Amino acid sequence: MDNRVSLPNSLVSVQNLSFSRGDKKIFDDISLEFERGKVTAIMGPSGTGKTTLLKLIGGQLFPKQGSIIVDGNNVHSLRRTELYNLRKRMGMLFQSGALLTDMNVFDNVAFPLREHTHLPESMIRTLVLMKLQAVGLRGARNLMPNELSGGMARRIALARAIALDPMMIMYDEPFTGQDPISKGALVHLIKSLNTILGLTSIVVSHDVHETAAIADYIYVISEGKIVGQGTPKEIAQSESDWVQQFMTGAADGPAHFHYPAKDYVDDLLSTGRRY
Amino acid sequence: MIEFLQQLGKNTHTGFTKLGRGTFFLLQVISGILSVLPRPRLLLNQMYSVGVLSFLIISISGLFVGMVLGLQGYYILSDFGAEETLGVMVAASLVRELGPVVSALLFAGRAGSALTAEIGLMKATEQLSGMEMMAVDPIKRIISPRFLAGCLSMPLLAALFSAIGIIGGQLVGSGLLGVDEGAYWAQMQANLDFQDDIVNGVIKSIVFGFVTSWIALFEGYDAVPTSEGVSRATTRTVVNSAFSILGLDFILTTLMFGDN
Ligand SMILES: Nc1ncnc2c1ncn2[C@@H]1O[C@H](COP(=O)(O)OP(=O)(O)OP(=O)(O)O)[C@@H](O)[C@H]1O
Ligand SMILES: [Mg+2]
After folding, report:
1. Residue B10: inside a domain, yes or no?
2. Most buried among A119, A154, B33, B92, using CB within 10 Å?
3. Is A254 in the B-facing interface, judged by CB distances under 8 Å?
4. Residues A248, A254, A256, A259, Cα dihedral to 10°
């Protein structure tokens, strides 16, 4: 329960965090710092718990051990109303977009504004159109979520995440499903939100090049541990096998493509039971 | 034998923890109702999709149930030369029993299953989670208005069912079988009791609306967030609502009509 911030300049600080799902250890005593006004990337193989980490920071999951401090508040010792007030200042872009399917694009982006502010409708319209313009989808305002492609849905969700002008945004895989043009535009957008508005950004991504282009600092996580960290340059030159494997995409190396399983041959030959 | 007992113990345990979660959920939903009151639009939208869209099925079923009651009642009563009292019989059966019970069963099938599927899918597609991250409480914003709409719609739908059923009984009774129309209505008016029949019927339908909405919303909220999980939850809503409605009807009837 200590509310001390370890680095004066970090907005989010994850301290000695451990978390398990059932018997599976997702995080084993890791610590990360996310500096104010910077873009910090989290990379790592699929299934290491990147999404889980964002949900822990957002206070949707509870850690087994350790604490998470956001802007001086220990997320998991806040009372409910305090947590909700903190969340108004944290934007999150879900991997799936998580748009509300019973309203159109415009109303989705307007949703947080209508819930949390008492702005007149004309002002809301202006704000929504500005956010939609920023993600290049102002023309799609009347479409329903089921009429959007996956990539479009994610951009709309980004417009919604920045609707309340938060102090930070957590992006879960913003580049997946984007064509090269919109990928480039998104990279630019994340960077400019960061430099112009001074937003702190946490970007979870597999896209090595895009991430290296915008990140100020990168953490590489694998099997519950931080296996590498540093500026994009340092990461690219890292000697660590883990990091090299991840950056070059080799199937062989310390990180496994396969989810833990018993020996393949044994598995194929054991016909006794069905599974 | 040991295995059976273990399984029984395990099932009882999961049953009780689910009941506990359900109760906690209900308390949250009820306390969320306060924040629905300043936003009547949320409630009206839900009254429309929960209540108004059930109108047709309730009306048609009410008409047929009333007509069948008219026929059956006439055959029995005319044996005793008491076909004049057909109106009483039809109205009492509807207002006391069939109105609340059958309309609640239909409501569970029509609106309850839809609510479970809707909430379950919102959970599976992370819409509820996303809302939490936008600092909007999904219970207050999504669940409570639907709960309130269910509780308010049910008595109205039951009343509609009974009213149309009574007309159906009259159509068959005096239109087809020649019971005196004046007698049908007069006997009904003279012999139905406001407290015993109408109020008790309304209390029943309020209880059924409460329980059905609770089950439907909780099953959706508690569903395993996959397509299979949602489909199972929808089935459970219909089955559990039906059991609860019929079981509660027996208990309520015993309490209401037991000692007179
Ligand atoms: N609801 C859940 N219940 C149990 N285990 C879960 C649940 N959600 C995720 N997991 C497990 O937690 C681990 C981390 O999941 P997470 O979604 O955080 O991975 P990720 O790093 O975001 O992967 P990806 O890059 O594929 O999105 C996975 O091994 C997964 O099996
Ligand atoms: Mg993920």
Report:
1. no
2. A154
3. no
4. -150
Query: In angstroms, rounded to a whole number, what is the distance separating the alpha carbons of residues A246 and A256?
Result: 10
Average pLDDT, chain A: 85
Tell me the nearest-neighbour CA distance from B229 into chain A, angstroms.
Answer: 19
Structure tokens at B146: 């639907």
| The total number of residues written for chain A in this structure | 275
**ipTM of predicted complex:** 0.81
- Residue in chain B closest to A84 (alpha carbons) equals B135
The CA distance from A137 to A135, in Å, is 6
For A97-146, write each residue's pLDDT tens digit: 889 998 999 999 999 999 999 899 999 999 999 989 888 888 888 999 99
DSSP B49: I
Instruction: Give me the sign of the Cα torsion angle A224, A225, A229, A232.
Output: negative
Neighboring chain B residues of A157 at a CB cutoff of 8 Å: 130
DSSP label at residue A164:
T
CA-A52 nearest atom, ligand 1 = 18
Indicate the number of domains in chain B: 1
- Rounded Cα distance between B118 and B177, Å, is 46
Give how far A131 is from chain B: nearest CA, Å.
Answer: 16
Residues of B with CB under 8 A from a CB of A: 121-122, 125-127, 129-137, 141
- Compute the radius of gyration of chain A from its Cα atoms: 20
A98, B132: Cβ pair inside 8 Å? no
Residue B99 lies in a domain: yes
The C-alpha R_g of chain B, in whole angstroms, comes to 21
Phi, psi of A34 (to 5 degrees): -120, 110
A225-230 sheet: strands from edge to edge: A90-93, A168-172, A200-204, A39-43, A217-222, A225-230
Q: Where in the sequence is the domain holding B175, given as residue range(s)?
A: 42-253
* CB-CB under 8 Å, A160 with B134: yes
The answer to whether residue B188 is domain-embedded is: yes
pLDDT means per 10 residues in chain B (260 residues)? 85 87 92 88 90 89 94 90 87 92 94 94 92 92 93 94 94 88 88 85 94 96 93 95 95 80
Residue B236 lies in a domain: yes
Residue to mutate among B49, B133, B142, with most A CBs inside 10 A, is B133
**DSSP H or E stretch at residue B129:** helix B127-133
Tell me the C-alpha distance between B202 and A175, whole Å: 56
Q: Nearest to residue A1, comparing CAs of A76, A51, A60, A61?
A: A76
Buried b (16+ CB within 10 A) or exposed e, B180-199: eeebbeebbeeebeeeebbe
Please give the Cα distance from A43 to A35 (Å, whole number).
17
- The CA A108 to ligand 2 mean position distance, Å, reads 22
Asked if B166 contacts B91 with a C-beta cutoff of 8 angstroms, the reply is: yes
